[in-house]
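Lecture 7 notes: from sequence to structure.

We start with a single chain of 89 residues. Read the sequence below before looking at the structure.
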Amino acid sequence: MEKIEVGEIFTITDENNEENEVEVLAVVTLENSDYVAVGFVEDILEESEEEIDVFFLKVDEDGDFSPIESDEEFEKVSVAFEEIMEEEE
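Now the structure, written as C-alpha cells:
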C-alpha cells in the first residue's frame, strides 16, 4: 500500500451515493493503523472566514477509507490530530 500524503485528493461516496472530493489535511498512525483527517475540496477552496468541516477516516489494508466505528477509537484519533495541529501552529 502506498503511503497517503497530506494534500492528496480523493473521491469518496457518501451514504446517499453522491461523490465528493476530499483533500487529506493530516495523517496519523496509531496502534499500527493509519488515519486521515479530510475536508471537502469545495470548502477548502472557498476563501472564507468560516471553519471547514473535518472528518476522520481509517485507512484499511487496501488503502480504502472506512468510518471510525467506536466512540473510544474516535476519541483517540481526535486527540492525536489535535496534537498534530497544535504542533503546526
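The chain has one domain: 9-88. Keep this in mind for problem set 3.
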